[in-house]
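Notes from hallway chat w/ T.B., transcribed later so I don't forget. T.B. wanted the structure written out for a chain they're using in a teaching module, and asked if we could keep both sequence and C-alpha cells in one place. Agreed to drop them here.
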Amino acid sequence: MTIVFTDGASRGNPGSGGWGVIILTDDSATELGGREKNTTNNRMELTAVISALESVPSERDVTIHTDSAYVVNGITRWVKGWKKNKWMTSKKEEVLNKDLWERLVIATTHRVIDWKLIKGHTGHAGNERCDVIATSFADNSPVVLYNGSRERYGVDVSIKEIMTSKNSKVKSKTRAYSYISMVDGEVLVHKTWEECRARVNGVPNAKYKKSVSPENEEEIVREFAE
C-alpha cells in the first residue's frame, strides 16, 4: 500500500501556482513539487494528484488524501457523465480543465485507489506540509524536497490524525462548515466567510453558498461545477 498526500495553491485565480505531494511506502518518503506561471487552484490540485499517480508503480494500491472536493467528486462521480456527454456539462458547456481530467482518467485506469477527502488547514502534518510545498513553488521560492527513508522523514504523517468527511461532525445545523464560491467558472472552498467574500465581492456573475456539513459542501461544489 502506498499512501499519498496532495495539495495545490495559486496566487490569484488565475495567477502563479504550485503543487505539492508526499508519497509514502513502508520504507520511503518522497516529496514532489512544481509550479506554473498562469494557472488556477483547481488545476494545481489536479496536477498534484496526477503527478503523484504517475510517480507510483501501477501495480501498487494507493490511498490518496486531498482537501479538494473538486478532485474527489470529479474523479469518482462527475467524470463518468462528462465522458458520456463528450466532455460537456449538463449546461452544454465544455468541462473546465478537460486536459487534466483526461490525464487523471488515464492515471487512474486499472488501479485500486482509495480516495480520502480531508479538511484542509486543520493541523494535519501531511496536508500542512503539502501546502508548504505548493505555496513555496507558487511564490517561486521552493523548499528543499525530501527523498529518503520514511524512518528519517521529519513530518509526522500518522494516519490516526486524519479527519475524513465521513467522520467529521457538525455541532449545529445552522453553523457554517465552509463557504463555496464560483468566479469565472472556477470553484473554490473557503474556510471562512471573509475569504469567500473577498473573492466574490464586486465580481459580476459570481456565485457563493454556505455549507453546513461535509456532505453539503460536496453537493454545492458539484452544483457549481456542473
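Follow-up for T.B.: DSSP finds six helices and nine strands in the chain. Might be a good example for the class.
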